[in-house]
Design goal:
alpha/beta, Amidase signature (AS) enzymes, 11-stranded mixed beta sheet, binds glutamine, Amidase, transferase activity, EC 6.3.5.6, AS_sf, ligase
Length: about 450
């Protein structure tokens, strides 16, 4: 813990943490030490973890990197925090992120942008950008993020790490600040696949506080390192043919396809006709759900209340106007629009139908193939400042991560080297629902 605290202090300019639980982490580490000596320590003894600042931890502040949660303290812990602590993890602090997890660059934060440790003029990805940089710069052993449309996988790929989004319904969302509830999942950001597997194993499984969880037993997810049988892998042809994909991202994909073929696996291109509908369907649905989830921040029940509030209406208006940042307001307005009476069928209902088609098509591919292979992002980490200039370009870059989110299937981003500028690249594997065990096993082999 002392070593990590030192790294956190030395790298404060990266802005990865919203708060460091310094004293508490040191005390907790001493307690874990004594349990190790007594031989009664849990599975995560020795693991120092950072959590994204949208994960509730009793008695600790949680802000979702928003002014509207200024000074808000959690009155209970999320299920995943309880499970991590029960296995003797040490939680070292809460990490910066895009406000309410809305973003892909960590630039939409009330606490300012996070810098990528590989190139400080560039973004770390998002929304779990602080979590990724905390691991990338050695400020903790592993971090926990949330992934609604790529927020664990994309920052992992921008920072040269492993990022896993489990199947929707595998990990409890109880105590996670909601963005888009039918997409949100918690996932680990780690250096190794074994660490991701261990953290998933500890966090996964039924929880009486989250009714969307599957009632499925949790296996041991640790890779077994047995010989891998011949696999059938599909890759999206567009990832190689589209002009929108960076040329070094393409050659990285081609290199791994060749490697798999040389090892005897069957790797085939597929056309995904619904590709152009992935980003629009995702953003319509995610914004709609967000506009509803964020209606609870009213300046009355929790968080920030504007000093300009004089009656009920002005309390709502001024607290929300002053408390939410620009991107969050944009999404509340767009989400409210697509849900409004005159437009509901044209946008929200239509997007739900498109989601159903995307899910069915994805499931059909994953019946025929063991995995789908795609880049995690069409480009490596981009310069800080782009989100402000052109949000739509940033939305469109979610093209490869939102398929798994819309379909609910598990997906992992794996670090597959650096480009010619030394920026990390990542490839992503998608597997059928609840096949995390196979996915992690194959990932270990793949790298
Ligand atoms: N970039 C996507 C968005 O802005 C995904 C964010 C996430 O997964 N939380 O919605």
């Amino acid at each position: 813990v002392k070593g990590y605290l030192n790294k956190i202090a030395v790298n404060a300019r990266l802005n990865a943490f919203n708060e460091v639980f310094e004293q508490e982490a040191l005390t907790c580490a001493q307690e874990v030490d004594s349990r190790i000596k007594q031989g009664i320590a849990g599975k995560l003894a020795g693991m120092v973890i950072a959590i994204k600042d949208n994960i509730c931890y009793k008695g600790h502040k949680v802000s979702a990197s928003s002014k509207i949660l200024d000074n808000f303290t959690s009155v209970y812990s999320s299920t995943i925090v309880e499970r991590l602590l029960a296995e003797d993890a040490v939680i070292i602090g809460r990490c910066n992120c895009d406000e309410f997890a809305m973003g892909a660059s960590n630039e939409n934060s009330h606490f300012g942008p996070v810098k990528n440790f590989a190139d400080e003029s560039r973004v770390p990805g998002g929304s779990s950008g602080g979590s990724a940089v905390a691991v990338q710069a050695g400020m903790c052993h592993a971090a926990i993020g949330t992934d609604t449309g790529g927020s664990v996988r994309q920052p992992a790929s921008f920072c040269g790490l492993v990022g896993l989004k489990p199947t929707y319904g595998r990990v409890s969302r109880h105590g996670i600040i909601a963005y888009a509830s039918s997409f949100d999942q918690v996932g680990p950001i780690t250096r190794s696949i074994a660490d991701a597997a261990l953290l998933l194993e500890v966090m996964a499984g039924p929880d009486e506080y989250d009714s969307t969880l599957a009632n499925k037993a949790v296996p041991s997810y640790l890779p077994d390192n047995k010989p891998v049988s011949v696999k059938k892998i599909a890759y999206l042809q567009e990832a190689i043919s589209s002009p929108g994909v960076d040329s070094e991202v393409k050659s990285n994909l081609v290199q791994y396809i060749d490697k798999l073929r040389n090892a005897g696996h069957i790797v085939k291109p597929i056309a995904f006709e619904l590709l152009d509908f992935l980003v629009p369907a995702y953003y319509i649905l995610a914004m709609a759900e967000a506009s509803s989830n964020l209606s609870r921040y009213d300046g009355v029940h929790i968080g920030y209340r504007s000093p300009a509030a004089v009656d009920l209406l002005s309390t709502y208006k001024s607290s929300r106007s002053e408390g939410f940042g620009k991107e969050v307001k944009r999404r509340i307005m767009l989400g409210t629009f697509v849900l409004s009476a005159g437009y509901y069928d044209a946008y929200f209902a239509k997007a739900q139908k498109v989601r159903r088609m995307i899910r069915e098509k994805t499931e059909a591919i994953l019946k025929e193939y063991d995995f789908i292979l795609v880049p995690t992002a069409p480009e490596p980490a981009f310069p800080i400042g782009r989100m402000e200039k052109d949000p739509v370009v940033t939305y469109l870059a979610d093209i490869f991560t939102v398929q798994a989110s819309l379909s609910g299937v598990p997906a992992i981003s794996l670090p597959t080297g650096n480009n010619s500028k030394g920026l990390p690249l990542g490839l992503q594997l998608l597997a059928p629902h609840f096949e995390e065990k196979e996915l992690l096993n194959f990932s270990e082999y793949f790298l």
